[in-house]
Amino acid sequence: MSQNPPALRPDLARATIPDVRREGQPTIGMVSLGCPKALVDSERILTRLRAEGYAISPDYAGADAVIVNTCGFLDSAKAESLGAIGEALRENGRVIVTGCLGAEPDYITGAHPKVLAVTGPHQYETVLNAVHGAVPPKPDPFVDLLPASSVSLTPRHYSYLKISEGCNHKCKFCIIPDMRGKLVSRPAHAVVREAEKLVEAGVRELLVISQDTSAYGLDRKFAEERGHRAHITDLARDLGSLGAWVRLHYVYPYPHVRDLIPLMADGRVLPYLDIPFQHAHPDTLRRMARPAAAARTLDEIAAWRSICPEITLRSTFIVGYPGETEAEFQTLLDWLDEAQLDRVGAFQYENVKGARANDLPDHVPEDIKQDRFDRFMQKAQAISEARLAARVGQRIEVIVDEVDAEGATCRTKADAPEIDGNLFIDEGFEALKPGDIVTVTVDEAGEYDLWGRL
Which Pfam families match (predicted)? Predict the structure, then answer.
């Protein structure tokens, strides 16, 4: 599970709201770890606290208590979460723990018995109750009004839009359904209304996230309510009418995903699919309890590209899964050669407490996992470099993320923030500001990044 990058981690960057508090106002700090879905949870918690009269502290010393929103997907993520809890205890002393690792309260209190409370993922009311117990609210009805917009932990020009919680899949390496439960989709009209408010507040890019985006609405039987149908194709069409970039993440490769591609070809949503293929060998996929149809997936990819030639495909893979042979791994490399995915990441398999994969036979030695990871990433890097080189000379739209004295850091439609690459402008950038969408000519390409000029 990817971590928040240093530039956006709330314990480093903090909320993008003014650090202004009245005398005697109770103040809360926030450390948010894990994936963007956890970041959305943190934003919701802080928004509720702001509405109740709490101030948000940009540092440990200024907070009456600190909330640590944890990740518990992998052992490495658990270790980072425990480290963040320990740091908050040292720097502040009054710590409330929530998030995915909160599903294992004994694990947390065993390492840090002095935490004030432990709650599980998306238990907003329980977190608020814990905050009330640790730092009672002192609302001033003449000062503390509900904020016009929610607290944001990302730059003002883009925002994550979570459309569902949980997952119905039973992948053997994953414990997300155990931590976050089965699929629960938000009503489509509520998602669209939130998106409208974000765009009204200046957001130029909506990043649609969930655990399984393409399953959105399945639990609601794709019901229509208040003029909006709870189906990913309809939702994408509705969001695409708002005038912002719409980027789809975590799209499981169901057959109906092909219905999204015409929306990309028409410019309604960005031509970008983030699909977790995980592997390519049918036997490995069966041991993962995932669909074992890599050959048909290649046919689907070809069909998507025939409809929308500019589509960007991003995926993640697991190397060194229990039982993975050298022949199975070579099949993955060969598949990657054929698929020519634009953006690729990989994880070395780790045991996760409670995952069924732990009990599989023939675990791969660490040195072999590392070797396969290195070989996989070398091939993925070569593919990325070649595909980016083909963009030199093209005129493309980019969104500006940051401007400093040296240049402007931008992203193309093919790049998700803090996950994919960047496009850099180092001449004539002085008038640009974050959130601008401009047209550039690509001058140079590297392994993962581009350089261009206005």
Answer: Radical_SAM, TRAM_2, UPF0004
The pLDDT assigned to 2 comes to: 30
Residues 346, 83: Cα–Cα separation, whole Å: 24
Give domain limits for the chain.
10-134, 158-389, 395-453
The answer to whether 308 is a known ligand-binding residue is no
Instruction: Count, in order, helices (H) and strands (E) of the chain.
Output: 13, 20
71 is in an annotated binding site: yes
Q: Please say whether the beta carbons of 364 and 354 come within 8 A.
A: no
- Give the SS3 label for residue 82: helix
Task: Answer positive or negative: Cα dihedral of 53, 59, 64, 70.
Answer: positive
Residue 357's φ and ψ, nearest 5 degrees, are: -65, -25
- The length of the chain is 454
Q: Are strands 408-412 and 423-425 parallel, antiparallel or unpaired?
A: antiparallel
CA distance 25 to 14: 18
Architecture of domain 158-389: Alpha-Beta Horseshoe (3.80)
10-134: CATH topology is Rossmann fold (3.40.50)
Q: What is the dihedral of CA 36, 42, 48, 49, to 10 degrees?
A: -160
CATH superfamily for domain 395-453: Nucleic acid-binding proteins (2.40.50.140)
- Mean pLDDT value across residues 78-87: 91
Compute the C-alpha angle 399/404/410, nearest 5°: 20
Per-residue pLDDT, 147: 45
Question: Taking the model in full, what pTM does it have?
Answer: 0.77
